[in-house]
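User: I'm designing a mutation panel for Non-canonical purine NTP pyrophosphatase and want to avoid disrupting the core. Could you give me a predicted structure to guide residue selection? Please restate the sequence first so the numbering is unambiguous.

Assistant: Good idea. Sequence first, for numbering, then the predicted structure tokens:
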Amino acid sequence: MLPLIFFSNNAHKAAEVQAILGQEVLAYTRLLGRVEVIENGDSFEENAHLKAQALYPLLADKMQDFCVLAEDSGLCVEALNGYPGIYSARFASIQADAKAIMAGNFTPPTLSASDTENNHKLLACLDALTLSESVACFVCVVALCGRVRGRTFQQSFRGECLGKIIKAPLKPNTFGYDPLFIPQGYSQTIDTLKEKNQISHRFLALQQAQEFLKTFKGQERMD
């Protein structure tokens, strides 16, 4: 089985990815130590590829066949004109009010914030716009960058989970914006759903990535 090296410093996210794929996913820090990547892309796709491409040359001298798996994900809120989007993990660090954020009139944040801080920022934006809910979409882009028998490959896959955000009480130890997001067709927030890993944006992107890797390995056996 092709080793999957996951670029993430988020233990919760790594566990979720491993549960979805149903196979071991190695944290890159076990092989390389911590690697810092400036996520200055203009899209989820660009940021995911930046991370995958940063790890690939560092692993190329250590391993023969391997695949780097990186992802970038976030919440796009219609009432905020698609923000926080690629700034989802840094949303609370944006020094601007809801109307300025809607207009894109802010300095891109560089500092990460806690999930609780980001949720409070989002709730404050809803309050400022006098809204109790808004159409929203979770987006995940998975980027693969790997090598098998000397052949390199690079690909990306996008998954989206449509729904809405609501004003709801925050809970301890929840992940991301999950306690505020209700998927389309449901009446509960996604953090309370047992089937989260079968409907999430991350599942939809990883499912495509997994199918791609199966096809690639099938081709490899025919060489």
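For picking mutation sites, this is relevant: The chain has seven helices and six strands. The chain has one domain: 4-221.
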